[in-house]
Batch of 4 targets.
Target 1
Amino acid sequence: MFEYILIGSGFAFAAAIQPGPLQAFLLSSVVKKGWKRTLPAAFSPLVSDGPIALIVLIILNRVPHTMSRILQAAGGVLLLYFAWAGYQQWKKQTTTAFNVNEPAPRTLLQAATVNILNPNPYLGWSLILGPVVIAAWYQSPTNAVMLITAFYSTMVAVLAGTIFLFGATRFLGPGSRRALILVSAIILAMLGVFQLVVSLLRTG
């Protein structure tokens, strides 16, 4: 069980730290409205990911075991790619600039819409979370529940912390953002290697 908690929380931390459309909207909202009014948007993944996760899990539960292993291996490769991209961004000694002129989400629903239009949840559930959740479920339903709980608890906590830091410091300093990106790249690389190894060792 502890293994799945680590996987869920580790991937969620790395995903929440990496710059993307949702993070850009959160920052623009903090700039325009303050961190307190933006804080509810941290829960947007809980709203947006439900339909995505349900559809993916239904499909994955019907595919042959061999295909599930292939998808899990592909997820490992995708994680390594994300890790490499994060490392390259850190190596350039610059961080992705957020566009504060983007319209800020006025409601939790709008923030969730931003996330639905973001390709990352689809990739994450199809190639990373989905296969791991299925494997965990076959071992024990409790493992699958703990993995999903750890993922979304960490995701919401990190997004909320990011919103607070954006508000408390106006912007995270370039050095701080670079350090967080490097940490997330290391976590993604470790998870990618783990996914590849597990996909090769899975049986039955």
Target 2
Amino acid sequence: MQQDLNGRVALVTGASRGLGADIARKLAADGAAVAINYFNSAERAQRMAAAISTEGGAIAVGGDVRDEAQVAALVEQVTKQLGPIDILVINATGPQPMLPIEQLSWRIMLDQLEFFVKSPMLLAQAVVPGMKQRRSGRIINIGSEVFEKGLPKFSNYVSAKGAQLGLTRSWAMELAEWGITVNHVSPGWIPTERHADNSQASKDAYAQRVPLKRMGTPTDIAEAVAFLASDAAGFITGQKLSVNGGNSLE
């Protein structure tokens, strides 16, 4: 579905590949100028920016979204090159090890919290003042169904995703008076480059448990994000939109 995002500036973190790349392409196709944030994949991000620059326009911006100084620098770069950020999509993630309780450490827990609590905090602190001045803005967190499903041996990731949902709800209430919406897109298992080593049998088994009997695609997630970024979703805030074929009902 086409959304009208002309004149908007979007920053998508972790957008050089995976879900972030499809989200960036969709926002650009709908008319937004898009900043493609990357950490290590500069060449890939620059190729992406060149490929979609004929749509809404795009630039590649490097930076570790867990680092305060780098977040400030990348937001400044986006603002100088494209304009004030209207749409913030918080998507970046790192390794997601599955470990039993006995093998967990606080450092392992913090690794996930830095992506899903610290990074959103730093990014919000960088863009919210401008959004407040304009009395408009969209913040969209990319979550996961794992918080509802409670996967075993994944408590480091599951708990951090739960905290991210908590941020979404609290910030939505805090920022509503400025016309800023904050929502949470919660995908099911969407195969991307990250899952190249997962067997087809495991994917088929997962799909069979999904009521719609298929796995989702990155396009499914990108469409949901574009909707929440649009004027059509202006009266939606503090919500978790599960995009998982009915695999969870919360």
Target 3
Amino acid sequence: MVGVYWIFRRWRPASVDRFFRVGQLFSAAMYSLGHGGNDAQKTMGIIVALMVAGGYLAPDIELSVLRWNTLWIILSCHLAMALGTAFGGWRIVKTMGMKITKLRPVGGFCAETAGALTLFFATHFGIPVSTTHTITGSIIGVGSTTHFSAIRWGVARSIVWAWILTIPASALVSMACLWAFKFVLGVD
């Protein structure tokens, strides 16, 4: 963000705004590609692990769109990502884009580009990362370049608490589901 400010320091604010409104179409597309590449792969890994454990796939299987027996895994994960983003993602987008800090097009471009590059790097090296953590850090970084007080720290704190509480909450839900299956099926 600081580099972009320096590069465009002689431009009129209206021209910078117009330029980065168009630029955001590309940065958002790149971030979406990184998001799908990283998050969909995590889900594919879980499905493949279950299929291998159940004996339906060989342990050395590689996912490919050219193989009919693995194409369904790839397409179903991408469909799940698309549906989840379309129906439930708006709240996250709204919180990230409007509640943490006020972003102008130049800030949105920088945050999305930084997030996309981070996701591309992580995906290339097979590192599973949270895309929400990535974009949150990018937005806070962009917002803090103007004024540290431009960040709504109460919103950021709530987001971090949600991240922390998600892991034990999902463990409790998993435990409850296991107990329910054991009770209903009578399996030890």
Target 4
Amino acid sequence: MLRELGRVLGPDDRVLVIDDNSPDGTGKRADELALELGYVDVLHRERKEGLGPAYLAGFRQALGAGAELIVEMDCDFSHDPNDVPRLLDAAEAADVVLGSRYVPGGGVENWNALRRLISSGGSFYARMVLGVPVRDLTGGFKCIRRAVLEATDLDAIHSRGYAFQIELTYRALRKGFRVQEIPIRFVDRQVGGSKMSRTIVLEAIWKVPLIRLAALGGRL
């Protein structure tokens, strides 16, 4: 994945790998590749705290390094590295660009019917509760402009699972930032297990209405 990214990124672009003390040797392998590939950095975290805190740590490091555009993505080829330039190009006219599975031209591969239902149903549920037109609120492939993160109270985001993706995009919309969706094909990983769990699903179910209430009360 890191080598593939190196082929599509510009000379000043960098890749940050976030390792939450993975027991499978991911952190060690990432360090080896960072020594080999000059554009790779690795952020080691002491323990697993969920997707949200890991991304927030990565955002803070990227902002501290002066990044103007930040792309978040999975490193297991579920997200195609060749789509990264498309997201960056779209960011010329948008503040947040979402790689969307649920707009015309987008889709998923290698998912069973239940996983498709949970994902598409979750995005539909969040869209209805929050009252926004975004079709893929739970996706984790997005490009975010620096100004969006600087205008967002990152310390106030406590979502740990896919609710984090929903909350981050919703906060950007509430701030008046331009959000655009472009179609992508999401391919489920062939090795390893999915991050999806009952805890993650339940968090999204109860968290989304709380986010909406916070917005209505002027607390978001």
